[in-house]
């Protein structure tokens, strides 16, 4: 029965439009998921949205924000499972260089930001990615994560300060 409902929902309309899918891909990539695993991550987000509909739950008020948070959680899960592998910064820098070979300055900055993100605690990295890369407002992040807005703001402040210090320490900015 779940499959029939999911098929019916999927046949009616793709739960993620193109812009939402790009956002999900960006959140996954910034969360440390390698490029080869991004399609699986996007499918996981779609599946969770379809499962939600199949269970009869109301659609999220803001599907885009909900999908970004789910993608962020998936990325955190993946990142925890792969901590012993190559650092996030190296993976993101190589991905960035393959997509946009635009010069040494961009590569150095990308690598420094990626390494800085890698060094942040999971919760700080999550809110930073959701706010600045997924472009979600603080209120949406707080609602989706189930924490007060002040907590989101505090984590953002601490994460930005740590990332800024890292970039100054590396003499990138």
Largest sheet, if any? none
Structural class: mainly alpha
Helices, by number, come to: 9
Q: How would you state the average pLDDT, rounded?
A: 79
Query: Ranges with pLDDT <50 over ≥5 residues?
Result: 1-11, 84-88
Kindly, what is the distance between the CA atoms of the first and last residues, rounded to a whole number of angstroms?
Answer: 56 Å
Task: Give helix and strand order, one letter per element, not per position.
Answer: HHHHHHHHH
Oligomer: single chain
Radius of gyration: 17 Å
State the helical fraction.
Answer: over 70%
Can you describe what's shown?
With 173 residues, this protein is mostly helical. Helices cover 75% and strands 0% of the residues. It is built from nine helices and no strands. Helix 2 packs parallel to helix 4 and helix 8 packs across helix 9. It is globular. The N and C termini lie far apart (56 Å).
SSE arrangement:
Blueprint: H1 2-12, H2 18-30, H3 38-54, H4 63-81, H5 88-99, H6 104-119, H7 122-133, H8 138-145, H9 149-169
Helix pairs in contact: 1-3, 2-3, 2-4, 3-4, 4-7, 5-6, 6-9, 7-9, 8-9
Provide key terms for this protein.
about 170 residues; mainly alpha; about 0% strand; globular; single chain
Summarize the structure.
It contains nine helices and no strands. The protein has 173 residues and is mainly alpha-helical. Helix 2 runs parallel beside helix 4 and helix 3 packs across helix 4 (63-81).
